[in-house]
């Protein structure tokens, strides 16, 4: 009975695939279940806002609270490393002036270069960049450790959740979409934790430090840059507003393509038995083109 039920399920899956392909050909669009349990369409009416964002955000903060001491250390290291990295070019400018003035004096007055001062500044410059690299490596190592532990915990929780879900859930969601949540979505969260938190601190410190350094070097040019900055932020805002929806759609289409590939390879024998190769390839190409265009 188990074998007959399995074969019946596979045959029914192929029949449903055929019906969906015909509907897809008629509508000239996609219609499949995407990430976050939503129906994703090829039109502009796609729902691309995550469900229960605040609840999910606070759950993530709760998971990060366990590593708050490590995160604080990472932020402090990021600030120190950024300060050293900003101070380096300023010292490089002084070193360049020292060498240039020494060469000028050598040509016109016969005086030589101040070797001791140059070597001292070179050693100091090397120490500054080395310290910056060490602190940035330390904060990167800490945040990588935190993000991987959080990702590990999330995967374990997802695995426990999947073992408790009813069978009906797996009938409504493709295997590839579920796998995409465990892999791609969790990796996206991990990468955000790994780079996002420290990049915010680094960016703020860099902006403040560079602005101060620019004022010490050339005040008029600094004011020109500050006048142009609002226009740059306006352009960035317009681009980000238009591109954000494509990042969301990309995850949805990625889950759909993974699900379709997993199901078609899992039922490859049935697909060949019913002569569905061309339709499955055509449907995959259609979905893959949507993923390509969105990306």
Describe the sheet with the most strands. 2 strands, antiparallel
| E-strand count | 2
Overall pLDDT level = 78
Q: Helical stretch count?
A: 9
Percent range for β-strand residues = under 5%
Rough outline: elongated
Order of helices and strands: HEEHHHHHHHH
Low-confidence stretches: 1-5, 20-48
Distance between the termini: 45 Å
In helices, the fraction of residues equals: over 70%
Order of the strands making up the biggest sheet: 1-2
Radius of gyration: 29 Å
The structure class reads mainly alpha
Would you give an account of this structure?
- This protein is mostly helical.
- The chain has nine helices and two strands.
- The chain has helices at residues 2-27, 53-65, 68-108, 115-164, 167-172, 175-217, 219-266, 268-273, 277-294; strands at residues 31-33, 39-41.
- Strands 1-2 form a two-stranded antiparallel sheet.
- Strand 1 (31-33) and strand 2 form a beta hairpin.
- Helix 4 runs antiparallel to helix 6 and helix 6 (175-217) packs antiparallel against helix 7.
- The longest helix has 50 residues, at 115-164.
- It is elongated, with a radius of gyration of 29 Å.
- Mean pLDDT is 78; it is low at 1-5 and 20-48.
């Amino acid at each position: 009975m188990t074998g007959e039920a399995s074969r019946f399920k596979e045959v029914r899956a192929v029949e449903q695939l055929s019906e969906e392909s015909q509907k897809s050909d008629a509508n000239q669009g996609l219609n499949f279940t995407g990430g976050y349990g939503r129906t994703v369409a090829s039109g502009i009416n796609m729902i691309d806002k995550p469900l229960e964002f605040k609840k999910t955000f606070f759950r993530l903060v709760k998971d990060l609270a366990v590593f708050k001491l490590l995160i604080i250390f990472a932020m402090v290291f990021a600030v120190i490393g950024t300060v050293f990295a900003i101070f380096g070019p300023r010292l490089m400018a002084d070193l360049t002036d020292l060498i240039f003035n020494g060469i000028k004096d050598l040509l016109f007055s016969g005086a030589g270069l101040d070797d001791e001062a140059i070597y001292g500044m070179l050693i100091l410059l090397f120490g500054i960049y080395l310290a910056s690299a060490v602190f940035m490596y330390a904060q990167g190592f800490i945040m990588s450790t935190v993000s991987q532990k959080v990702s590990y915990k999330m995967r374990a929780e997802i695995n426990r959740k999947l073992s408790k879900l009813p069978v009906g859930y797996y009938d409504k969601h493709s295997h590839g979409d579920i796998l995409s949540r465990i892999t791609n979505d969790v990796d996206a969260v991990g990468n955000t934790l790994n780079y996002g938190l420290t990049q915010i601190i680094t960016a703020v410190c860099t902006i403040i430090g560079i602005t101060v350094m620019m004022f010490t070097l050339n005040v008029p040019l600094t004011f020109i840059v500050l006048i142009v900055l609002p226009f740059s932020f306006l352009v960035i805002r317009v681009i980000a507003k238009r591109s954000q929806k494509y990042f969301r759609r990309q995850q949805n289409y990625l889950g759909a393509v993974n699900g379709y590939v997993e199901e078609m390879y899992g039922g490859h024998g049935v697909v060949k038995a019913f002569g569905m190769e061309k339709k499955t390839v055509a449907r995959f190409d259609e979905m893959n083109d949507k993923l390509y265009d969105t990306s």
